[in-house]
Amino acid sequence: MNKSQLIELLAKREALTLKKAELVVNTFFDAITLGLAADNRAEIRGFGSFKVKTYEGYTGRNPKTGEVIEVHPKKLPFFKVGKELKERVDSLDD
Among 26, 71, 73, 78, whose Cα sits 20 to 30 Å from the Cα of 54? Predict the structure, then answer.
C-alpha cells in the first residue's frame, strides 16, 4: 500500500473527502518526521516505534572502483515493529 492508497482507504472508511483524508495522513507523517528531526521517539502502541539511530563514520570502499572513501557519521530513522503487529502478520500464514 502506498500513500495515495492509504488516503483513498481513509476517505472511504471515514466518509471524508480525499482532500481531508490527505490532510490527516500528511499531518500524521509530518508529526512523526518533526519529532524524529528533534531527536524524539514516536511510538504507536500495537504497531511499532520510530527512533533515530546514530551511526559513526568509517572508512569504506567504493564497490565498483575499490577506491577508499570516508563515510561520514550519520543519523537515520529506524522502525521497530510492535509485538501485536508482529503477531498479526505472523498469523496470516495460518
Answer: 26
pTM of the complete model: 0.77
pLDDT at 94: 61
Question: Among all chains, which residue has been given the C-alpha cell 509530518?
Answer: 30
Q: Write the DSSP assignment of 28-85 as a string of letters.
A: HHHHHHHHHHTT--EEETTTEEEEEEEE--EEEE-TTT--EEEEPPEEEEEEEE-HHH
pLDDT (average), residues 27-38: 97
State the Cα–Cα distance between residues 70 and 62, nearest whole angstrom.
Answer: 10
What does the pLDDT average to over 42-60?
96
How far apart are the C-alpha atoms of 32 and 38, rounded to whole Å? Answer: 10
